[in-house]
Design a protein that fits this description.
CATH architecture of the largest domain: 3-Layer(aba) Sandwich
CATH class of the largest domain: Alpha Beta
Radius of gyration: 39 Å
Number of domains: 2
Shape: elongated
Strand order of the largest sheet: 2-1-3-4-5-11
Distance between the termini: 150 Å
Number of strands: 14
CATH topology of the largest domain: Rossmann fold
Amino acid sequence: MTDLQKRSTLKIAALSAVAAAALVGCGKKEEPAPVPAPAPVASAPAPAPKPEPLKIAFAYVGPVGDGGWTFAHDNGRKALEAEFGDKIQTSFVENVPESADAERVLRDMAGQGNKLIFGTTFGYMEPMLKVAADNKDVKFEHATGYKQLENMRTYDSRTYEGAYMAGVIAGKMTKSNTLGVVASIPIPEVIRNINSFTLGAQSSNPKVKTKVVWVNGWFDPPKETEAATSLINGGADVLFQNTDSPAVLKTAEAKGKRAFGWDSDMTAYGPKAHLASAVINWGPYYIKATQEALGGTWTGGTAAWWGVKEGAIDLVSIADDVPDETKARVEEVKKGLADGSFAIWKGPIVDNTGKVQIDKDTVADDKFLGGLNFYVKGVEGKVPNSK
């Protein structure tokens, strides 16, 4: 390479260096690489809307404070609330008469969005049938009735089991051998209880007889008091009732006689007179019916009849002065009813005209018990409106 060529090459290199320096001197800086945006975070799905509570309504024939029948049903309603919490919403209407008014109340309950409706007395049967036929999307439950529809079924408690156990005590505790019953309305349910009470008493004391006074109503404390007084004046020293208030027990307390509580524990209304209370626990059935409604397994057109076996009937708060052997007998009966080894309505059973109604060793079925219209031997008088 000649000197001239070398000088040209060096000159070009020098010019390149100056150009590079000039670029730096002009403040041109390399921009930092952009930071990538964070990946979007997936948002949590919106919570599913909470299902509306099942609305449940109860129609009561008496006041919730009657201390007996309606009080027991309302305890069952409260058991529902404790069991299901905010899954349900309950309401009730008390003092609903067994008349056209019942139909109005039941229609109003359906119109307010209640999808499960309980009618808690026999006299609501026909009104409920009408309302149920017009509200197919509502489930109806009728206490103590016998007519059903596709969306209406019946339920009852074997109150005659409690009546029999009370009778076992009454037969032992009477001194006059005369028992008195204040009865409500002459339907098979009530006749069955009068007879079962008498059969229980006869198992302890074959000499007993039973007098009956009808008041033709479920809850009428003045009439109940009058009837109880009449029975005491007629010689009865132990009283039983198929009415809803504690008036009978109060009357016995005031007059120095003995009596039983009915449907609920009535001890507090007459602690000196009180021998025991035949109680109903509606809670187990109400919980079952509600669970079926919530779970979509509820079916109409059926009937349920629960007793000691299902935990629906009991005899509680037995008085201290009842003999131990009598208490033991009550426990034997209770155990036998629970496991099926004892039957109250087992023949021979004779009515008070001497006619054999159930043959020896024959056990009455539910159809027979559901249509009772006679008094057993030992009960005085005739069944009202019976042939």
